[in-house]
Amino acid sequence: xxxxxxxxxxxxxxxxxxxxxxxxxxxxxxxxxxxxxxxxxxxxxxxxxxxxxxxxxxxxxxxxxxxxxxxxxxxxxxxxxxxxxxxxxxxxxxxxxxxxxxxxxxxxxxxxxxxxxxxxxxxxxxxxxxxxxxxxxxxxxxxxxxxxxxxxxxxxxxxxxxxxxxxxxxxxxxxxxxxxxxxxxxxxxxxxxxxxxxxxxxxxxxxxxxxxxxxxxxxxxxxxxxxxxxxxxxxxxxxxxxxxxxxxxxxxxxxxxxxxxxxxxxxxxxxxxxxxxxxxx
Amino acid sequence: xxxxxxxxxxxxxxxxxxxxxxxxxxxxxxxxxxxxxxxxxxxxxxxxxxxxxxxxxxxxxxxxxxxxxxxxxxxxxxxxxxxxxxxxxxxxxxxxxxxxxxxxxxxxxxxxxxxxxxxxxxxxxxxxxxxxxxxxxxxxxxxxxxxxxxxxxxxxxxxxxxxxxxxxxxxxxxxxxxxxxxxxxxxxxxxxxxxxxxxxxxxxxxxxxxxxxxxxxxxxxxxxxxxxxxxxxxxxxxxxxxxxxxxxxxxxxxxxxxxxxxxxxxxxxxxxxxxxxxxxxxxxxxxxxxxxxxxxxxxxxxxxxxxxxxxxxxxxxxxxxxxxxxxxxxxxxxxxxxxxxxxxxxxxxxxxxxxxxxxxxxxxxxxxxxxxxxxxxxxxxxxxxxxxxxxxxxxxxxxxxxxxxxxxxxxxxxxxxxxxxxxxxxxxxxxxx
Lengths: 281, 433
Ligand code: SF4
Description:
The structure holds 2 protein chains of 2 kinds.
Chain A: E1 6-11, H1 17-23, H2 28-32, E2 36-39, H3 49-52, E3 61-65, E4 73-74, E5 77-78, H4 79-89, E6 92-96, H5 98-102, H6 117-120, E7 123-126, H7 133-145, H8 158-161, H9 172-176, E8 242-243, E9 246-247, H10 256-267, H11 272-275
Parallel strand pairs in A: 1-2, 1-3, 3-6, 6-7
Antiparallel strand pairs in A: 4-5, 8-9
Helix pairs in contact in A: 1-7
Chain B: E1 2-7, E2 14-21, E3 24-31, H1 38-42, H2 49-53, H3 62-79, H4 88-121, H5 130-149, E4 158-159, E5 162-163, H6 169-191, H7 195-199, H8 213-223, E6 235-238, E7 248-251, E8 254-256, E9 263-267, E10 278-282, H9 291-298, H10 301-310, H11 314-337, E11 357-365, E12 368-377, E13 380-387, H12 390-393, H13 404-409, H14 414-422, H15 428-432
Antiparallel strand pairs in B: 1-2, 2-3, 4-5, 6-7, 7-8, 9-10, 11-12, 12-13
Helix pairs in contact in B: 4-5, 4-11, 4-14, 5-6, 6-11, 10-11
Iron/sulfur cluster binds near residues 169, 171, 175, 191 and 197 of chain A.
C-alpha cells in the first residue's frame, strides 16, 4: 500500500474564511481520505501546531491560507521560517484564497509567489474571497492523482478561471439587451450598469459551480465584487463608474468600439418581455 | 513560575499564561498576538464598502458582522433625518440568515471543538467520524444561507433599505429543505430526541442518559465534575434585539436595564508580552455574553433549571449553546414559513452621499453582542469601531477584577482550565479584528 500524500494547512493573516468554506464540501470525508492531514485549523489532524512549528516534519502538499506577513509568528515561530521549510519540501503549494494569492484584504506585500523565486514555480493560486470548496477539491484530487493543471498568467488553474463570473449568470439576457436592474432586490435586469457588477471583468466559476450547490452573488442580487482578481478589494463596490452614462470598464477583451456599437444597437430596441417583471403575465 | 499554554483551533490562536499555586490556577491571563486592523482599512471608503469588508473580520460569524454593519449604516441614515423602513420580508430574511449562521457555529463548536477536547481530556480518542458529522451539519445549514443570501461565508446581501435577493418559491423551498435536513440531523444524531421534547424539558433528568452525541458529552462532563467548575461572575449582558433575544443585564436570573452607550473598552493586560486585544466592559464591570446570557434572558426552562443547580458552570454554559441551537432551528423554520414572497426586498434609500451622521449597529452574534459604530461624512467612512462579543468573555484584566473566562479558570488544574476557556467559544480573529 502506498502511503498517502501528506497535506499541511498553514495560515498567515486571515479570517479563516477559506478553511470554513472548505468545510462546506459535501463529500469532505471521502476527499480527505486520500491524504494524511498533518495540520488543519479545524479538522482532526496528526500534528499540533506546536509540533508543526518545530519544522521537524515534511509535507507533500502545502495549503497556505491568508496574507503572508514574514514577521508574523505562529506559535512563536516566524511565518518566514515556516514557509521556507514547508515550501521547500512540498511538491506543490496552493495559495488558498485571495489573501494568499495576491495579498487580498489583509496583505500589504502581494501574494505568496512574490516571496520566493525558489518555489514560485510550485505555486497554484486559488484566488477568491473565499474559495469555493469544489475549487480546492479539484486541486486536491488532481494532486492525489498526479495530474497537472494548465495555469493562466496568474498561476490560476484554467479549468476554473478561464471562465468569467458572468458565464452562467441568470441575468445574461438582460446584459445582452442592455436592460439594467432597477435597483437592488429584484431578479430582473443586469447589475453591470449601476450596481457595480464585475462579472464581465472577473475570472471565476461562481455561476458555473454554485455556492452551496444552489446560488451565487449575482443570482441573489449582489454585484460581483471581483474577489478573484488581484485588485480586490477595489473601492466603491456597490456602484458602477461611468463616463457619460457608459460603464468606464467594458467587458474583458472587448474593445470599447465593439462594445459601444453592439450596445447602441441593442438599446434601439425595447424588448417587452425583458422590461416586465418575470412574474407578470 | 508562569506556565504557558498555546490554545489553537480557536479561529487562530491564543496564549494562556498561568500563575499557579499548589498546582492550581491562581491567576490566568489571555494573550492574542495577531491583529489585522479592519477598522483602519475602512477609513475613506464609501459607507457600503463596509458591507463587503467587515464580514471578512471572521470566517465563522461574518454574517453577524454584515448585519451589525448594515444596522449601523441604517442608524446613520436615521440620525441624518432619513429613517428607513424595511419590509417585513427583508427583516425576516435577515433574522433567518443570522440565526442560521448561529446554528452552524454552534454545531461546529460542539463537534469540532468541545467534543474533541472532551474526549482528549478524558484520555479517549474521539470517534473518527465525529468531526465530520459536525462539518456535515454545518454544511447543510450553510446551504440554506446560500439559497437566500447567495453564499456563505462572506456574502453582502444586506444593504441599507433591505436585502439584495428576491427569493421565489424555489429558493425558499431550498432553504427550508436544508433546514429540515439539518433538523433531522440534530434530532437523530446530536440530541437523540425531537426538538420539541428537548426544548420543553423542564429538568436535566429529562435529557440525561440519552444515547446520542449530546448524551455522551453530558456523561463525560459529569464525570469531570464540570457542573461544579468554570463558574465566572454569574453576571450577563445581552445587547441585541431579535426574536430570540432582548437587551438586558442580568445578575443570576434577575434582569436590569442596559444602555449600549455605556459600553467601553480598555487595553488587555497579560503576565508577559503584549496582547493585541481590548477588553469590553459595561461601566467598568465585565459581563459574560453569549448563549448562556441569552438563555437566562429568555428564561429557557431547561437552562434555568441547570443554572439553579449548577449556576454558571461549564456544564450550564455548554448546554445553553446546545439549547440555543435547537431553539433557533425551530424558530428559523417558523420565520421562513412566515415570509410573504410578494413583498418588496428593498426600499430605495436616499443616496448615501447625502448622509453625514453617526450610527450604531448591534446584533447578537453566536458569542454575544457585536457592536459596529460608524461615522459617515457625505457617505464616506470617517470613523469605524467594532466591539466583538469575545472582547467581553475573554477580557484579560488585572488580578483584582479578572474577566469572565479568567475568573472561570481560577482554582482549576491547567488542563481543565484550558477546556473551561474553550467553553466560552473562543474566536481569536474577532477578538482582535
Ligand atoms: S449581473 Fe453581472 S454577471 Fe450577471 S449578467 Fe450582469 S454583468 Fe454579467
